[in-house]
Design a protein that fits this description.
It is built from ten helices and two strands, in the order αββααααααααα. Helix 7 runs antiparallel to helix 8. By secondary structure, the chain is an all-alpha fold. Strands 1-2 form a two-stranded antiparallel ribbon. The protein is elongated.
């Protein structure tokens, strides 16, 4: 009788006093599985998203426990380490800005739309009026380069970068070499470096634009003529002295 109980399940006793029927364990298990698979038993089960979220947080908890056990000071020590890392990353991000996607000389100063220096100046002033300093700095630098091209101080060359324009313009306008390089650097920082321009940086580049308009270029021919005249005058004085 005990062996029969181990391999079967007793059915409820009948009301007429007859002995209970025995059901084999396999069919009984299958019947229970079918019964429990009915929808009525799973109405309050968590959704697949909730189950996935619970699994994720369980994984995070295990990871945190493993990390805290390996860190001096346990969980508080791990929190201090994480906070220090966040502070260091934040300081580097603030100091260096967004990482450059490429070198500053890899992108052109102008797009494919030809516009005059006056057009770029008007666009720059419109952006400045709305306090959009990034766009204002960009357009003002383009106005400077386009103005130099219109004055024939720079040749019209597609694909020129701000650094190249500043270096070439510095040869014709040597008194503004440093300011031209600074303006090109501001343009590159805003356009490719992810930095934010300020009202002060726009004022500097706008003042440079106005100063360049008032500055007469130093041409190579005039320089050589000046040197020649100085040499001739020196020789004449020397001859008179003799």
């Amino acid at each position: 009788m005990l062996r029969a109980v181990d391999t079967s399940v007793l059915s409820p006793a009948r009301s007429d006093g007859e002995p209970p029927l025995t059901i084999p364990r396999g069919p009984a298990r299958e019947a229970a599985r079918r019964e429990l698979s009915k929808r009525m038993y799973h109405e309050n089960d968590p959704s697949w998203f909730q189950r996935a979220l619970n699994a994720f947080w369980n994984w995070v908890g295990k990871l945190f426990d493993a990390a805290s056990s390996a860190t001096p000071g346990g969980a508080p020590g791990l929190v201090v380490v994480i906070a220090a890392i966040v502070l260091v990353v934040g300081a580097l991000w603030w100091r260096l800005g967004t990482p450059r996607r490429g070198p500053a000389s890899s992108a052109a100063l102008f797009d494919d739309r030809p516009r005059s220096a006056a057009d770029h100046r008007a666009a720059a002033e419109a952006h400045a009026a709305q306090r959009h300093w990034n766009q204002a700095v960009q357009e003002r630098m383009r106005a400077i380069v386009r103005s130099l091209e219109e004055r024939a101080l720079l040749d019209v060359r597609p694909g020129r970068t701000a650094d190249e324009a500043a270096a070439e313009a510095g040869r014709a306008l040597p008194s503004h070499t440093d300011r031209l390089r600074s303006a090109a650097r501001d343009f590159d920082d805003v356009t490719y470096g992810g930095r934010a321009a300020t009202e002060q940086s726009y004022d500097r580049i706008a003042e440079l634009d106005r100063a360049l308009e008032r500055t007469k270029p130093v041409l190579a021919n005039s320089t050589s003529d000046t040197n020649s005249s100085h040499s001739a005058d020196h020789n004449a004085r020397r001859g008179a002295a003799e």
